[in-house]
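For the sake of transparency, this paper describes our internal protein records without simplification. An entry from our holdings is shown next, in its original layout:
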Amino acid sequence: MSASTLSSNTQETQIVITIQHGKSMLEFEEHLQSSLNEAGSLASAHQLEYMDTDGSPIKVGGVKMTTKRKKEPKVYETPWGAVKVARHVYQSSCGGEVFCPLDQNARIVVNSTPAFARMVSWKYAQMAAPQVHEDLRQNHGRASSRSTLRDLSDVVASIAQAKEERWTYDIPQLPAPVKTIAIGLDGANLLYYEGYRIAMCGTITLYDNEGERLYTLYCAAAPEYGKQTFIKRFSSEIQKIKTRYPDATYVGVADGAADNWTFLEPLTSVQVLDFYHVSEYVADAAEALYPGKQATGDRQAWLKQKLHDLKHEEGAAKALSRELEQASPGNNRMASLEKLVSARTYFKNHWHQMIYPDARERNLPIGSGVTEAACKTLVKQRMCRSGMRWKDQGASMLLTLRALVCSTGHWDEFWSKVDRYGFPIVHNLPAVH
């Protein structure tokens, strides 16, 4: 051993560390990491011992419980390594479930200390279990099974889900007052074992008076029929924001999917159709009206003018809708007719949401790029890598972690609340006979 305890009491622990000087700097650093891990494990074991009870009877939920004496040491995972600690395990005189005060006092997650649970779950939110396993080995000199890493991350996510209605996370200090809040939602394809399904992502974005983005809060839910979990979760986050910023202008920004507007219209005073999606339909209309290479110049000029008018001219959307109703395709091909009919229908249904001149004048957002980027950030970057397929529970837990990590400040505040309040997770304790 390269680390040993010199002295230890409830106030402090002194540890002596011996570090071997290797033949190379890398060898020395590896020895140093190993020695520090040994010291960290020793100190963690002492800290855990001091957080246990002295064996006196206790009351849990009004029920008197007595210790069954210290059981065989339990293995606890820490950032520096696994440690074994004997602890008191309690039970009532009537038998039933056992209770370990040490696990509650130390905020043990399954069998891991909070710092290790935080480390692993953050890494798992960014990387698959094999990469987390290798990262711990390479960068922390730490070994752990892949199944433990996944299970631990799932439990952390379940804590976040269990507390999402009660725990409110503060928004960090912003450089300017909040004037506008944009709400958007969209779906991202996620490969399940039975095929592709749509995971939902939502964003709540805060803007200043000049239209500069200040902060974005992310929300996500695994694929489900009816989207009820996502709707409940996202609605709850929106209401929390409305309570904090009651005087802000709330803007719904999304593509033309009917479900999006069914959700957004009751929650926002202004609705804006995503300009990028609109431009795609205008481009299709241009292809239909001016097909072929010979009409390239006319097609590009028409498209440029219409997009400019939509952004800058009042009434341009309604005028373009009427123009498309009366227009005919530039050739007899079915593809041209289909593009024109699609654009015509789109404008007929949504021209009233193309309020771009007014939105630009008021510095309101006109694009859903933040939400579309969230689909890539929350879902695609982590969950759509080669060979990945998902089940409901795994997808749900990972998306919860991703949303916490991506919303600035939420991750640190979540762990601060875990440390302060604890969490309602029943640990699987060994049976006491």
Observations:
- Residues 114-169+409-425 form one domain.
